[in-house]
Specification:
The complex is a heterodimer of chains A (368) and B (515). With 368 residues, chain A is an all-alpha fold. Chain A is built from 18 helices and no strands. With 515 residues, chain B is of the alpha+beta class. Classes of the chains: A mainly alpha (368), B alpha+beta (515). Chains A and B meet through helix 1, helix 11, helix 13 and helix 18 of A and strand 26 and helix 10 of B. Chain B: Belongs to the PIGX family.
Amino acid sequence: MDVDYYVFTDAARFIYNGQSPYLRATYRYTPLLGWLLVPTAWQAANDYWFEFGKAVFVVCDLITGYLILRLLILMHKDTNWSLLWFFNPMVITISTRGSSESLLTAVVMAAVYRAVQRKNWQAGLWLGLAIHLKIYPFLYVPSILLFIDAGQPLWKPITRERVKFLLGVLVTFCGLTYLMFHWYGQVYLDEAFLYHLIRLDHRHNFSIYNISLYFTSFTGKSALFDGGFTLEKMAFLPQLALSAVLIPLRLCYGNYKPEVLVSSLFIQTFTFIAFNKVITSQYFVWFMCFLPVYLSLSTISLFKGVILLAGWIITQALWLYYGYRLEFRGEFDLFYSGLWTSATAMFIWNCVLIAEFIRDVTRKVKRD
Amino acid sequence: MTPIKQRSIIFLQDPSYIELFVKSIEQDDRDITIPASTKFKVSRQEKITIPYSEIDDRMADLFEKVQLMDVRFSENLRGCKDSPGETGQTIFNDFENMNELGLSIEVAPQTADSFEQYKYLSELTIDQVMRMLRIQDDNSLIFFQEWFKKNVFRIEDQGCSNIAQMIALRLWNALLKRNVELPVRLPDLETLSGVELVLGGKDKQEASLFLYWQTVNRPTIISKKYVRQETAELESELAIFYSTSKESWDYNPPLSGLRMKIDKEKYTDDNKMLKFVPTMVYASPTHNTLYGYQSKHELLHPIGMHPTYKISILNGDAKFPFEPLQSHGEGSCSLMFQLDVPKQIILDKYQLEHLKGKSFIDFHVHNGGMNLELPDYRIEEWGGSLTAELDESYITSHNESFEIPLHLRYGKPLGSYEEFSMPKGELYWQCQMKDANQIVEAEESFYNEKNRLGIDKFGQNMMFYHVQDMESSCSNSLQLKIPTADLKDAYSNELWTLIFVIAGTLYIIVATVRK
């Protein structure tokens, strides 16, 4: 069982009892999630209700899969690629353990599906909801904007359709956020949004920044720079420059093709995660929902694909090996020599993958 | 002038040696020497009651306002070399089963008229006690049950071979306003097991200092000269007890022995040899060691960052039921578990919630609402406490054991690991006394301390039966190590992280912009 599932269900119990979900320590999500899981608090009647949330997440997995299938049909691609989502063991495990990521992927895919259908107002509404659920889908705003009215030059960005899309985003995001703030107060903003800007994240995770964060959380300053400048304050810079600006501009500017849009979203998400201060396995679901569509247009050879995938798995396995030794066996001297080196290996491999994906998509665009 | 009163109790655990023991007691003009040998298993307790009139004015003022305060200290016993045997029943069951580690200060100011004042007085009192003891510790106190509590699990050895001795001497010297000699010999203080200071409550303007020796390995010398100090009036009473009960399981056995009063009237220049008088009393202790059962405390391996604390109940003598029977006069009993943990450990109340309906009937975590995610160096509180009511039937049907999941916080990155001790929990039966006679006996007993905080104040008219730790004589803590990073690596780590992030960014930029 995912520890987060206990957090969601405890929060749902608070809501069920007419209280704030933020009474549950470490609940750092929108109250919508807690509302959705209120039936898990009906345990007194039936213990099975506790598993209700997992059922919701599995249904969201199926909705995501269905939308992937619809996208593939819409793009006239081989629908068998959708099996990569439906039968993905990682996706299945994450949802059945009680992680809520599939709720987000369903909403994100709904936004993308509507964007591809050129229903921009609806796409905006869905994307606004996705950003409200978790902040990172704001990355998709520039790519979708470039995709809408793709022939529009950069110096004349405003079009009626783009405004409709942006309005849709603002209506749901601002509307829901205002409503939650109105009902739950400052604690909602602190926990669901501001916390993510100030979090220490000292406990180890896949991120290359992790051990530096551990040191900084103790000393309060950088070992390299004087003043208040620290590495993690700078971390947003390459992350957002690449994932929210450079990659969308390169791949989506002048692009009419929905498969290129989806591929761009895939690479942007992958880059955002690779450069993030925190990386856990659940985050991989964020880009996996785009993977079937991306692979349907990929020109990467099977041999190369196997090598790229093997490198991704091996570097992760290496990190997990050291993580296990530290976390469950309590072995010493693993932070720098074990965890950081393997996190760095994973980061390097992720950079290789990102560059390869970008080359792949540009190659495909050029060829068409 | 109200005198300082000293009560010395020597308890001989094996009564079969009583004749030999008494014969071996020696007395000269100045001292009474109580023998010690491997034959005589002896425990000792000193209770020195100091009236507020003899206490430093500032502290006396504070004590009058506070009325309820309990300061306890137990040495860290780090483990047993040989397998320890069962400790016999004494009347010092409260001390023997305390399972305290380090210093614990509990304060419940009785004159406060608001919660703010209650907290202010508690903080002030704890700060004053820490100053008296000259112990530096910045951790903040937590609200525990109905009062404030602070624990200091580790007190650095400040050139003193026995910290308990240091605590006792510093308390004594700082408390008394005149230069009065502590009426216990320094060599005896060196082997002290525990110290406790308890205020007298609303009715008594006095503080009691308890000194406790679990085992006495060398002769105890009681000096009669202390009562003739010029700076204060001191009355002393010495008692040597042993149990005369034929039944080993008798929780309130008749105690026989010898008593001697030592005061200025009796101990004069003309009369320096004092006489023991035979005595027989009932201690009616509210704390008992449960017969026939012991507990085993262990951390399951591998420990890692998520230790599992396992407590097993060992049945040594099957003829005794696990639950103390109503034949002792009590009504309903609850099996309880009390655990204090240092701030390096996370007691996740949400995870513990899932033990309800299994080994826990109910529980409460007191940790001042501390953050579940922060590293230990970002936590202000000293730690947290767990009070759990256990489901005896569930535990006995599940291998007579229960487990408590714990989590370690990240520690200061100052080397390979951070080492610390966690006190073992206290497993005990808490029974409500129903019989009026029993309540009166317990209240009027010469032994019981009514104003002690801690589990004694969890309910009224309670009788406690402690499931003694099988290693209680030589271990009161479990050792843990948190793997940590080494700050020496910070510079190279940050530098290489920066280099790889820049290189990775540039590599992707090149791939993006290249035609």
